[in-house]
Amino acid sequence: MSVQAAPETASARSRRAAGVPWERVEKVVREAVAGLPDTSADAVLAELERNVYDGISAADLALAQVMAARTLVEREPDYSFVAARLLLHSLRGEAVGYLAGAPRNPDYPEMAAAYGDYFRDYVRRGVELQLLAEDLAGFDLDILAAALRPERDLDLGLLGLQTLYDRYLLRDPHAGTRFELPQAFFMRVAMGLAVAEPDREARAVEFYELLSSLRFMTSTPTLFNAGTRRPQLSSCFLTTVSDNLASIFSGYRNNALLAKYSGGLGNDWTPVRGLGAHIRGTGGKSQGVVPFLKIANDTTVAVNQGGKRKGAACAYLETWHIDVEEFLDLRKNTGDDRRRTHDMNTANWVPDEFLRRVEADEEWTLFSPDEVPDLHDLYGTAFAERYRAYEKAADAGEIRVFRRVAAKQLWRRMLTMLFETGHPWITFKDPCNLRSPQQHAGVVHSSNLCTEITLNTSSDEIAVCNLGSVNLARHVGEDGLDVELLRRTVTTAVRMLDNVIDINFYTVPEAERSNLRHRPVGLGLMGFADALFTLGIPQASEEAVEFADRSMEVLSYHAISASADLAAERGAYSSFDGSLWSRGILPIDSMRLLAEARGEDELDVDTSATLDWESLRERVRTVGMRNSNVLAIAPTATISNICGVGQSIEPLFSNLFVKSNMSGEFTVVNPHLVRALKQRGLWDDDMVAELKRHDGVLTSIDRVPDDLKALYATAFEIDSRWLVDAASRRQKWIDQAQSLNLYLAEPSGKALDALYRHAWRRGLKTTYYLRSRAATQVEKSTLRGTDGRLNAVTPTVPVAATETTAAACRIDDPDCEACQ
């Protein structure tokens, strides 16, 4: 279905809006629809005419053109590219005019020919404004200019370009004028990551090719800051807070400094003594960990990363901490507000012993960590044995502060709070440690803000992770996964991420020391749902689980191989000796360590493999690894928008909805579905109306064939056990974790219990949000306006503003953009 409108002359339009340069506008619009056969310039112009007026300003006219095209997206997804090209036209005028010092607005052919000259001017001006690092001016700009691909500006949809426009592209800090175009942006990031390479021009071109082709994207902090004078490029920081005031307040300071330049925070608070514990220095009793968490919450709010995005942190607490029940209540909207943290995420750090007690319906003992300090550093069998010894000590009167609860009752309350407030998330301590390559060098005490990072922390080391994601959708075709292309992408991506470590601007010495010693990176993926659409595989199927397994195996194999190649070239990371890597134990091999500690009844994981892991195993053992950790799947909430694909490993939320983020509200329609419906002659105005009526869900639309309903099933239609099973098959290949959201359309205590125990038995290290309701809905009305047109998609007010629904994390929540 294409949107058509009767042609109209510019002179006729000019009578309706005096002063509008219709001939020039029509030229720009027709250029924007070129090459997009299902779009119509006349339709855009007709829509524009309804929204212009006599005396409209140039800026408002440019915006009106974008909005006119955006209105048509719900009926034809390619209008997103039309709207993006119209926005790009304005951006070109803004950038080129600024650098030229006079108004200029070149059309696309003129700009494509002049892109090299623009790029050289852009670098010079950026250095003059002290926005770009002086090192960038030392590159051979002629070589880089010749490598620019202006046509790739046209590959960005509206959501992607608008995200860049609003938040990433450099602007004059005094005039507020943007002067960075998309290809200059990608090259700037590439130059920033290649600045220390021996042949930096060649590497910059290699990195640029990967970014501008949208096959891979670095994380948001890297995109913000690469090539600038403050290159804080890392995504995540993990800290442990010790049980003394100096450490606690140093932790607040570190949080502020780390968040200032776009880092997301994961804080381990387990060592802080609990409520009622003895304070030797004053002879009094502790108020527990909660008051300190309140201050951490307020620090997070105060530091908003220069207005680019909100500061964000997650507090972790182990399940045996005596304050754990108060910890569960931190996100409630009722109770004493001084003991609530409305702006900070929380997560349970759950040992296997607790879940054994839940399954056996036994008691669980809560302790204050000052009396059982070694539990914090123990895991697996050692933790279970020491924990039971402390229980006996408590029974003998040797421990003063403890409390017994029914394990099943505490588990039920954990799940209830997760459902009601979205927090605390459920993360599993033992698999994170038992499968950690760095067991010899410390303990994993928490994950990060988005639950995919599992690195050691201590009082003198802040863990740092540097993230990027492969766009899986760009590596599949109708014939399946393009393994060779994926190998090339992964090899270059790992090099880029390793470079981050040496280039990075560190705000605290504990982070620099840790990152340079262990050199962890986290390569993940996005566009998994898009890849399944291309392959025709429903997400709720064994085929999807198998594809998750095989695609992750290839990605893991080549990522580990790339790190070993870098070790041969640059040297292994300094703490390599004694690691699982040095013993020839790869992530797939570490599954047996978890199985040995768990027992066969508590672990159900497929460990099949298809590649030549034995030769890689030997090579890693002898050559070494450049990075202590290589793999982690982050949420990609922002960078997937830039690339125009679904987030991370997420199922599609809806086939037609309004996405809200810090750049505004955008109609999103699944282009894969539209193409499929067009092929079957089913895409028309009535189908759009049906999709809107049913919130983008196909189940109740009789005209849609069953095979398409299965293929394009949305998140709340899919049994989350399929998501867990696919995650389990990925997890065996990953040395860190995955940011895995789970969905329940009709949650109940029984369903929650079954789902999270299933995740535990399948060997997952962490889970992320529990989504229990729709985040946005499309307008239900299918009435036509007075002009006969269907109403546009608009957000509606969420139903049932109860604590249960209102507090749950929304899929379009901009807070979820903190990692990527």
Number of helix segments? 31
Could you say which structural class the secondary elements and strand pairing correspond to? alpha/beta
Strand content: 5-15%
Overall residue-averaged pLDDT value: 90
Percent range of helical residues = 40-55%
Number of DSSP-assigned strands: 18
Overall geometry: globular
Unreliable stretches covering 5 or more consecutive residues: 774-819
Distance between the termini: 35 Å
Major β-sheet, in short? 8 strands, mixed
Radius of gyration: 27 Å
Sum this structure up briefly.
The protein has 31 helices and 18 strands.
Task: Describe the structure in your own words.
The chain is α/β, with parallel strands linked by helices. The chain has a domain of 204 residues. 44% of the residues lie in helices and 10% in strands. It contains 31 helices and 18 strands. The strands form 6 sheets. Strands 1, 2, 3, 6, 7, 10, 11 and 14 form an 8-stranded mixed β-sheet that branches. A two-stranded antiparallel sheet has the order 4-5. It has a two-stranded antiparallel sheet with strand order 8-9. Helix 15 packs across helix 17. The C terminus is likely disordered.
